[in-house]
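Form 7-S
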Amino acid sequence: MPATAASASPQAAYEWSSRDSGEVLELDPFSGDPPPLTPALPYGPGDDGDDGEAESRPVGNAVLGMLLFLGTDAMFFAALIGAFIVFKYGALDWPPLGQPRLPVMVTGANTVILLASGLTMFQAYRRIRRGEAAGLQKSLALTALLGTTFLLIQGYEWLKLLGYGLTLSSSVYGATFYTLIGCHALHVAGAVFWLLVVWWRATQRRFTAARHTAVLLCSMYWYLVVLLWPLLYVLVYLN
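Output:
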């Protein structure tokens, strides 16, 4: 009766299974036995199994690091807001007499611009998740344009206020205003610069539906500066 794979020697059974699978494998040069078989691993998400686990770990670590950074940044702004509230409600007159009033309407329109940039950033992330490289570039460029517009309008506002006598040294009101709003403006400027770097990389086709960690991290930071601003606007400009 012809030998089967189960009853044949390990070498014969191994050669028989190798011919069926089409693999070209070598026997152990010392024992003559076939090498141990390794179980098949499941494919990674979104590809053919090249980098499932290897890709997920760096992304997870990067997101965790960004969350820790955002939490630290949020606490920094919480401290600035707390100091502003203490000075505001501890003063007899706020704003002090003789100090210019803040441009509520212009800054309100500027707030809408910054909130709109949050929507375009969200759209950019959705587009790269769908693999739309050209759409990603357009949404990132529009987000950077809206952020730059916000900064230009705010800079013009500051020039007018400085001309009216509101400076860092004019009063506690001026010092707290420029410290709190200025720190936020610096964060927006840094976020715009990061956006431009990500946009440039997008023009080089560096991102795909499976690989876009930089877009995700940039969007997380952008959401922070966008969501902080309505709180600052209500606290500083409307009260």
